[in-house]
Amino acid sequence: MNHICDNLGEELNSPRCLEIKEHLESCGSCRNYFNSVETTISFYKKYNVKLSDDAHRRLLSFLGLKE
């Protein structure tokens, strides 16, 4: 949630971030998506994964996070 709120320029306890958190708690699809993105980011950080630019773009596209 910190990352999402930071990207939105919001504080963690702002109405907007609280609404997003509430939605994630009640929507299984969004929660699963959010968890998959978090897991991917954790693996990148933990294993210092190096990808080619093409592979990186395809991963972002697959996750719906196009640059």
What does this structure look like?
The chain has one domain (2-62). It contains four helices and no strands. It has helices spanning 2-8, 15-26, 28-47, 53-62. It starts with a helix and ends in a 5-residue tail after the last helix.
Quick description:
The chain contains four helices and no strands. The chain is mainly alpha-helical.
Largest sheet: none
Q: How many DSSP E strands?
A: 0
Class by SSE composition? mainly alpha
Report the C-alpha radius of gyration, rounded.
14 Å
Give the topology, please.
Layout: H1 2-8, H2 15-26, H3 28-47, H4 53-62
What are its keywords?
4 helices; 67 residues; mainly alpha; elongated
